[in-house]
Structure formats: C-alpha cells, structure tokens
Design brief:
About 35% of the residues lie in helices and about 20% in strands. Strands 3-4-2-5-6-1-7 form a 7-stranded parallel β-sheet, with helices on both faces. Strands 10-11-9-12-13-8-14 form a 7-stranded parallel β-sheet, with helices on both faces. With about 400 residues, the chain is of the alpha/beta class. The N and C termini lie far apart (about 75 Å). The protein has 2 domains: about 200 residues, 3-Layer(aba) Sandwich (Rossmann fold); about 160 residues, Rossmann fold, CATH 3.40.50.300. It has 14 helices and 16 strands. Helix 5 links the parallel strand 3 and strand 4. Helix 2 runs parallel beside helix 3 and helix 3 packs across helix 4.
C-alpha cells in the first residue's frame, strides 16, 4: 500500500515519524478527519475503539502549530489520568525534532511542578478538566490564544459531573476557536449538548474500519457465579496471554487479585481506589509483560491503549452494546488478531446472545480441557467389565 495522500501535506518531521512507525495505510477516521481539522472546522467524530482516533486529530493539529509562538495553542481534555499521560506520550513521540512544546496536567500532581511546566510556554496542554479549570481560574493557564480544544473520549466528558467544567473551559477561549470531539460512541444526547457550544459542526461516523483487518474471535464460558474465578485462573494460565479483565465491582477486583496472586499468578489491577503510584506501576508492568493479566473497571481503563493485548475478558456481562464494544475494542488493534471472552452464568447466556445479535457478531460456546480451550469437553464413555463366562 502507498502512503495516504494527506501524508504528503504534512511537515517533514511528521512524515519522518510516520515512516518510522512503519504504517502502511491510514485508518478511515484518520483519512476523513484530516481536511476538516486542517480547515479549522468544528467536528464530532465517531469511530470504533482501536481505530487510531488520537492520531486522527494529532497529525493535523501538530502540522498547524506555530512553533515560534510563546502562546498555548491547543488544549486536549480527557477524563482519566492514564488517558492524559497516554495522549501526552503520543504527542512527544510524534513531535520529536519539531520544536513543539507540550505538557500534561492531572489532579494530585505536584502543583509547583505543574506551574514550572507552564513557565516553559507549552504549545499544547493535555489534562483532566478539573486540573485545567483550576489553572485557568488561577490565571496560570492563559486561554486567549488557544486555537483548538479537543475532547478525547468525549462521551465521558459530556456527562453531568464534567460538563459544566468542560463548558467553562471552552467559554474561556476566543469565540472563533475550533472544537473537536472524538469518541467511540456518539449519542443523540452528545450531539444535542455540543450543538450549543459548537459552530456548525461537521460529523464523521465510522462504524467499522476494514483497513485494520485483524481477526477477533468472540467466545464464552458458562459456569455458576462461584466458579467464575476458577475459569479466570485457567485463562491466566494460557500461553502468551496478555488479558484485560473487566469487572464492575472494586471489591471483586481486590478479592480476585489477591486470590490469583496467592496462586502464583502475577496479576495487576486498576480502579478508582488505586493511588497514582499504584496505577502507574500496574500499567507499566502490564505494558512490559510483567503482569500477563490486569483486572479493571470500565472507567479506569477507558481509552487505555495497550499494544499487543491478546485478550479482553468480560468477567461481568456488559449491560449495553456500547459497553461491550468499548471493552472488546481493546484487542485486535492495528491488524492484530485478538480474542474476547465472556464468563457468564447459565441465566446470562440468552442475554449475551441477544447482545451479539444486535452487534452482528458470532459468539461461540467453549470449554477448558487439560488447560486448553476446546469446543466442548470430550465426554468420557463408561467402561463395563466383561462378564465372566
């Protein structure tokens, strides 16, 4: 495949970074979002998890940065610390050698260090809404020259607990600024909320990206609730596994983590009660392969991009199609194959099949036999003693 046409429009440092990454083609969302962002249009963009949404807005925005300016030009907001740090790492990687300055801002971080970052006059700030608003309110972060605001995983920001904060930040910028919202799920409610603060926004909706080509198998195991941990242990012992396990209850995560660790299985966890150092250790260890499995809640893992993730496990059945899609989209990224496993009770089987039908996916029932995943456990035939003559 040849490079997408827009790559030729990028400055040399981005063309070099693209070449270094070894990408053969742009994803649909990257192709479709480039021109509207370059043109300064407001945009609502929907594309499945794992289709390169972060890069879809970063490439055109990095191309537009005025390096000689000492003013903040782009503000990117995300709902979790992990997502903020992940986006910032991408900015650092793709802006190498360009002279573009960037900084990350999250709650709980050393305030003195955060102010030091602002003194270096970043062109791009990425942070959580609460921390950004705090710095804006204190007049430490100047918004008068901001050209673009990005809401990454925007559906998590257009919710009651964040929306007022996000709106206040947007209103602190010039009226002609550009506003971009990217998400795997754009509901009518999001479009309605954004209509009041966006200027004639364009909409892009990519339902499926065939350019990625990875094969993802959806399978499930049926067991009683008390046996779920037993199944999870078998999954953790599979060869070359790198699994993200979704649970709805923090108590279950902590209990199961201790049980699995007791059985000499290295397992990490990520949830709202984890402190900053625990979260960083868990994500770093999981990325490096020190932990083959990480137990997490939906909120904690939102937007997290783990390269080489082989498996997603629904320990608790997703309540909605969107939840199933968000979770499952973490594997099978960038053309790699993946597996999605649901561990369900007999009463949940019908519900899973209904979910699968709505999502137009095939789910196959499986079992474990001698530590391997099989279609069904071989039935032992009874042996009868021969009658004595």
């Amino acid at each position: 495949m040849t490079n997408p046409l827009f790559i030729n429009e990028l400055p040399p440092f981005l063309q070099e970074a693209w070449k270094k990454e070894g990408f053969q083609a742009a994803t649909n969302i990257q192709e479709q979002a480039f021109t509207p962002i370059i043109n300064g249009d407001d945009l609502i963009a929907e594309s499945p998890t794992g289709t390169g949404k972060t890069l879809a807005y970063l490439l055109p925005l990095l191309a537009k940065i005025q390096v000689d300016s000492l003013h903040l030009q782009v503000v990117i907001m995300a709902s979790s610390h992990e997502l903020v740090m992940q986006i910032h790492q991408e900015i650092i990687k793709w802006s190498a050698g360009s002279g573009i300055r960037s900084a990350s801002f999250i709650g709980g971080a050393n305030i003195k260090r955060q102010l030091e970052k602002l003194k270096k006059k970043p062109h791009i700030a990425v942070g959580t809404p609460g921390k950004i608003l705090e710095l804006v309110s204190q007049k430490k972060m100047k918004m008068h020259e901001v050209k673009t605001i990005v809401l990454d995983e925007g559906d998590t920001l257009i919710v009651p607990e964040h929306f007022n904060t996000v709106s206040t930040i947007i209103k602190s910028t010039m009226k002609d600024r550009q506003l971009l919202l990217f998400s795997a799920t754009v509901t009518n409610n999001i479009s309605e909320e954004m209509a009041d603060i966006m200027e004639n926004p364009l909409s892009i909706s990519v339902k499926k990206d065939d350019t990625l080509g990875g094969q993802v198998d959806h399978i499930y195991f049926v067991c009683e609730k008390r046996e779920k941990l037993f199944i999870l242990e078998k999954i953790a012992r599979l060869q070359d596994i790198k699994a993200l396990v979704f649970m709805k209850d923090i108590g279950d995560i902590q209990f199961n983590e201790s049980k699995l660790n007791f059985k000499d299985l290295k397992v990490a966890s990520l949830h709202a009660d984890s402190n900053k150092s625990e979260r960083e250790k868990a994500i770093k260890g999981f990325r490096k392969g020190i932990y083959p499995m990480m137990l997490c809640t939906d909120v904690a893992a939102r937007g997290l991009d783990i390269k080489g993730l082989t498996t997603v496990v629904h320990y608790d059945l997703p309540r909605t199609e969107d939840q199933y899609t968000h979770r499952s989209g973490r594997t099978g990224r960038a053309g790699n194959n993946g597996m999605v496993i649901s561990i369900i009770t007999p009463s949940e089987e019908k519900e899973l099949k209904q979910l699968a039908k709505k999502l137009n996916i095939t789910v196959a029932k499986k079992d474990f036999y001698h530590g391997e995943i099989v279609d069904e456990k071989p039935v032992k035939r009874p042996t009868y003693a021969k009658k004595k003559k």
